[in-house]
Design goal:
This protein is an alpha+beta fold and 570 residues long. The strands form 5 sheets. Strands 14-15-16-20-19-18-17 form a 7-stranded antiparallel sheet, with helices on both faces.
Amino acid sequence: MARLRGLAWKHEVPAAVLSRAEVEAFMLAELDEELPPDKRALAVRILNRHHLLRPGEDPVAMQIEAMREMVAGFYDPDTKRFYVVEGMTGHGMKPTIVHELVHALEDQHFDLEAIEKPYRETDPDRSFAIRCVWEGSAEWVRRRYQIEDAAVDGEYYRQQMEGAEEQARTQVRLLTERIPAYMVLSTLLHYRVGPHFILEAVGDDLPGGIARVLADPPTTQEQVLYPHRWLGPERDHPRRVIWAPDFDPARAKRGRVLFRGTVGELDLATFLDYFVGDNDGRLTEAGIAAGRYVAAEAREAAQGWDAGEAVYLELDGGRVLVAQALAFDREEDAVEAAGTLWRALTLAYADSLVRPGGPGAEPPDFAAAPETSALLASEHGVARILRRGREVLWLDGGTAAEHAEFWPALAATRFEADPRDRGDGTTAAAAFAGCDVVDLERGVGLVLPAGEWTALEDPAEGVFAHLRGAAMEVEVRVADQAATPAGITHVFQQALGPMFRAEGQEPIASRFGPGLRYDLPGGQGVSLFAVSDAARLYVAVVRQTAPVERDALAAAVDRLFAGLRSVPSY
């Protein structure tokens, strides 16, 4: 592992194996240290204030349940120990060990806690970005380790499949029924977004590239979700929120500031999804399979994010006033965010909602004027959303008199541009400039080799691109899961069933790394080509319409794969 990572060990790392019960006890002790009872109570209070918990739900218990069932190992930077959870054995355990040892080794050289801990409590936006770098590095080395050692790779997948059906059912139940998306995505996406960001950041220079990234890490969720916004020539630095004194913990004259923290793009999207999504704020099986974790409406409303902070102020009697300041790259982004926020609030407060014009009144048109605001009232008091150019301000709670008192202070809140910012105005489509086939929702594009292929319209369900070329047709399918050669073999086995023969596979090379080819037996003229980058698996199903020389077929598919572009979806 040290050879693959390009760093030398400074000292040994103590290790242990934990049972699932011991994992739960360890996590509870960690939680008590990092989130003592007063802070835990405040977190629950804020979640309840936003109607983000069902009756009787305990967020701590849900978080522990998720970790107990889904964690395979972890490194503890406080004690400098790493732990593997009971389950896999022998070769099958090695990839998890490698992943955790990457954390241990990088901690010896870079002090991971010192990089991230200052932001953990009040800047989840930056904390998420830093952790994506950690997990991306560890996953990148793990993947290379498995590619290099076929025996380990095969055993890892074999053990994963033993009892996988029962384990998968348990995890799907947790993610689709028990645990809200906002609680799991902030961790789950580290392992999906991180490797893709690292792939873009380091190229072939893993040791030097990671050192550069850790010395100058991304600062927002947006920057790792769209790597070109941090790694490209025009960095997209967020604006800074300058609060009026009423919302500054050190200067507030009325009420008590309970908490002030950042609201990143992912934070905003998961909040909106809880109310406007189609599964009560949980993930869906179809979404997990397709790499889409929040509803399209919530994701589109959050895109174009350029700044976000929230303040929670305690008023007389323990009532909580919410103030939020958001900024976006373009006015149309702010209009969309304001409209979706309005709809989310009307759904959150449906049981006590009072709107001007009556409960069935038309929603406000936030594009009607450069400054447009809308009012509603609920059990929390008066709420108002203002769309002001590229900004969205939201004040929620308090009596009419209190609202009138605080609103001018929120309206005086301003946003200060970072002088280094060069990224405003870019859109999600910017990463796919020049692509002939694009799925923006999924974050995949394809540049076709000039003169070789024609893209057919309306591909079948589950097909990213349907292409016609000389003497062949190709369907390109995309799975939102990285795969090593043994993982590709498993995909072929599942897809082909009894037709699959392991000896029928052939290694292929691509710009992503090694892949596999499988020609269906019996002269059917159908071949499968599969390669994987750090985030996705790409399968080309090739049907010959006329005889094609074997090497020419492989070269044509290789040129096709070379045009793939990918941005992690959520």
